[in-house]
Amino acid sequence: MSERNGGINTRAVSAGELKIKEFGNVVTPIFQNATFIYPNYESGAINDPSTGKPYIYSRWGNPTVNSLEQKYAAIEGSEFGISFSSGMSAISCLAMSKLKRGMKLLSASELYGQTYSYFLNKLMEIGIDVTFMDTSTLNEGSFKASDYDMIYAESITNPTDMVTDIQLLGSLCRDTGTELAIDATFASPVNQNPLDLGADYVVHSGTKYLSGHSDAICGFLGTNDDPGAIYDMRKNLGPVLDPTQAYIISRGMKTIGLRVGRQNENAMKISKFLEENGKVESVFYPGLESNPYHKIARRNLKGYGGMLSFEIKGGVDQARKFLGKLRYITPAPSLGGVESLVTLPIDTSHSSMSKVQREKIGIKDGLVRFSCGIEDAEDLIEDMKSALDFL
Ligand SMILES: Cc1ncc(COP(=O)(O)O)c(C=O)c1O
Questions:
Q1: Domain limits at 104?
Q2: Residue 185 and residue 239 share a domain
Q3: Cα 349 to ligand 1 centre (Å)
Q4: Are residue 96 and residue 205 in the same domain, yes or no?
Q5: To the nearest 10°, the Cα dihedral for 92, 93, 97, 102?
Q6: From the CA of 42, how far away is ligand 1's center (Å)?
Q7: Is residue 1 a part of any domain in this protein?
Q8: Mean pLDDT for the chain?
Q9: Are residues 226 and 338 in the same domain?
Q10: Average pLDDT in the 158-169 region?
C-alpha cells in the first residue's frame, strides 16, 4: 500500500524506509538474504506483500526490495509498486500476465526500439494481435477502444518527444474494459502520474530517472488494480532486483524531485538555445510553444522533462562530428542520470528497427537525442555551442 502523505520530495525521502526501533537505524538495511526462516512462527512476523505471508524467498519478495517498491509507489501515487530487474522485464511481465492468445493490443508506433521489436516479433509470435497506430492518430481518438483488450503508449515518446494524450485515452478506455498501459520513463513520476490521468498501469525503465545515476538497471510498474497476476508472472520468470542493488536504487530515488526539477529547467534552456542556433534544423521538446504537442503536454504533464532531440543541418555526418567535439557531455545511450548524455538513436535506442521503420516514426539518421543532466545550464550550452561552431 502506498503512502501519499506530504509532497513528492518528502515522500521520496521518507516513504518505505524500514526503520527497526531496536537498532535505531536511519536508512533501510540491506537484507542480503536469499531465504528466510520458514515456517516463521514469530507472532510479530512481517509479511511479504506479494504473498501476504512471512518472507520466505527473495525471488518472491525481500524486505529491502519491498522498501524500495513502497518508496516508488508513494512517488507514483499508486496503490501497488512492483520492481523488476529491468524496464523491459516490467513491460514483458505486464504483457505476459495480461494478454493471452487471441487478445488484441493497440500500441503506439513510436516506441523504444526494444519494446517495438518485442511487440512485433514476440507478442505476435504467441498469437497476440498487435496493431500499431501513430501517436498523432491515437491522440485524435477516432478508433473504437472496445475493439482492443489493451492500449499501450509512451507518455513522451523516445526519442522525438511526441506527447500522448493520456487523459483522452483514459476517458475512451474507462467504460469499455480496455486496459490502458503507459510507459512514463521519459516523464518520470515527478512530471506525470498516469494513473491519475486514467491509465490502469504505468511502467518505467527505472534505470533512468527513478534511480538517476546511470549505475543500475531496473524497472517499475505501478497500478491500483489487483497485482496478483503480475507478481505471479515475476515469480515465474524471475526478473527480480538483488537487495544490494535495491539499496543503491533507493538512495538515488530519494533525490528524484531535485534532479528532475533541475533537468526540466536545463532542457528548456537548451531547447531554446538550439531553436535559435543557425546550425540546427529542428528541435523536438514539448516545452517549446512552437512544438505541435505543447498543448497536449500542458494538460498531461506537470513539467516537460529532461529529454529533447534535434536535427543538425548536414545530417548524420555532421551529427557524428558534433558528438566527437563535446567536452562535458558524454556520448552514450541511456538517459535520466545526473550527467548529460547524448546519442544517435540509429546507433543505440532504435538500432533494432529497420531504416524504413525508423523513418516511419520520424527518426532521421542524423537525429540527436539529448538527456539533460543536472550540470550548470550555461556550461552545457557553451559545450554545445562550441561543438556546433566547429561544424
Ligand atoms: C522509454 C523506454 N522504455 C523502456 C526501456 C527499457 O528499459 P531497460 O533498459 O531498463 O530495460 C527504455 C530503455 O532505454 C526506454 O527508453
A1: 8-253
A2: yes
A3: 8
A4: yes
A5: 10
A6: 41
A7: no
A8: 96
A9: no
A10: 97
